[in-house]
Design a protein that fits this description.
Layout lengths: L32 H51 L4 H22 L22
Amino acid sequence: MNNTQATSDRPSNRSRHPRSRTATRPVALPATRHETLELRDLLEANLQALHALHEEHRRMLDASMQALDGMCTGLRGELRAISNPRAPWVRAMSETRALLFVALRELIVGAHEAELSMHLPQHEPEDHRTR
């Protein structure tokens, strides 16, 4: 049985090259009790191998899921550490900001700070008058 559908531009699927399949030949039913037992042993061995393969795949999937869970937990912890306002990087940024402010102020004002009669305001005075 073909899994593809015929389309209007192709008259038949037989013109296409079918997927290569392994050739199977019909097997006669076991005639003797010995042949029946051999077939049963073969089928049971095949079933056990399939069960073992299924268990191995299930264990591999479980191990992969546990590894992913561990990675997610680690990432959550790192995100919490980054977002902590008391984190070392926040303090370092604050100190760097203060150093840059002082350096910029010295660069702009420089040695002429003594000549200034009024220091630079920290913020704009608010105008309470309505216009």
